[in-house]
Amino acid sequence: MTGATAGIGKAFAVRLADDGWDLVLVARDEERLKELASFLGGTYGVRADILKADLSTVAGAEAVEERLRSTRIDLLVNNAGLSLNTPFLKSTVDKELYLLSVNVQAVMRLTHAALDGMVSRRKGAIINVSSVAGFAATMPGSTYPASKAWVTNFSESIALSVARHGVKVMALCPGFTRSEFHSRAGIDMSKTPSWMWLTTQQVVAEALRDLQKGKTLSVPSLKYKILVGVVRHTPTRILRRLARGARVRTGRDTE
Ligand SMILES: NC(=O)c1ccc[n+]([C@@H]2O[C@H](COP(=O)([O-])OP(=O)(O)OC[C@H]3O[C@@H](n4cnc5c(N)ncnc54)[C@H](OP(=O)(O)O)[C@@H]3O)[C@@H](O)[C@H]2O)c1
Which residue has a Cα nearest atom 1 of ligand 1? Predict the structure, then answer.
């Protein structure tokens, strides 16, 4: 479980512990990891190991890959991820590469490491946390939605190739979910209507239900299923016009 210290990852950790899973919790903040591990062990009686790793670095990703290869892991949740609050034109290559290293590169590396054992055991599952943001081009143009389009496409493609080995891979695409995600990026969400928000518990419950059903794509909640359905069936030229219009109306160039 990567990104276990907050938001969706923490909700996965609590729910999986409640279901009786032993866990390996991965994130950078060691204090929060220890606190969570002790809570999960004390409350649910499961074993929760911690692995402090910065997934933006090769060393951090390699430490988690090593753990995936040396321990039997039946479910990998690639959840750690971030957004920036800078439009591409005002961003730096270093910032964009940082985002890609966590949102894309680490997901690919850990998926690869986990599949070795899962395929040979003919058992296992991977949930890659993507986003509804990956379904269409959005203004003001940033690497975040592109990184999530990659995660969704990658997960669905790998799901096809490993299904015959008895292994499941699923892309989880939540909409706006209450967590630390937007405040960490410095994104002001105060004008986002309350009906658009999901809870982390709701996202996790639907994800696990969808995984159980064998789905390769999970979009939690009816409202976001409808939104994604509309986006997927709307001609691209209309979506582009809407995205440009939204940019002009809000004047926002950071998202
Ligand atoms: N919240 C939303 O509206 C939303 C919507 C769609 C998709 N998502 C996706 O859901 C996933 C989880 O987001 P969230 O909303 O739960 O965000 P969050 O509350 O900010 O939590 C992010 C988690 O990722 C970890 N993390 C961040 N950078 C890391 C790094 N370099 N190395 C290791 N761990 C790192 C953080 O832990 P440390 O700081 O301790 O390392 C934290 O546990 C992300 O992939 C995000 O793109 C979120």
Answer: 177
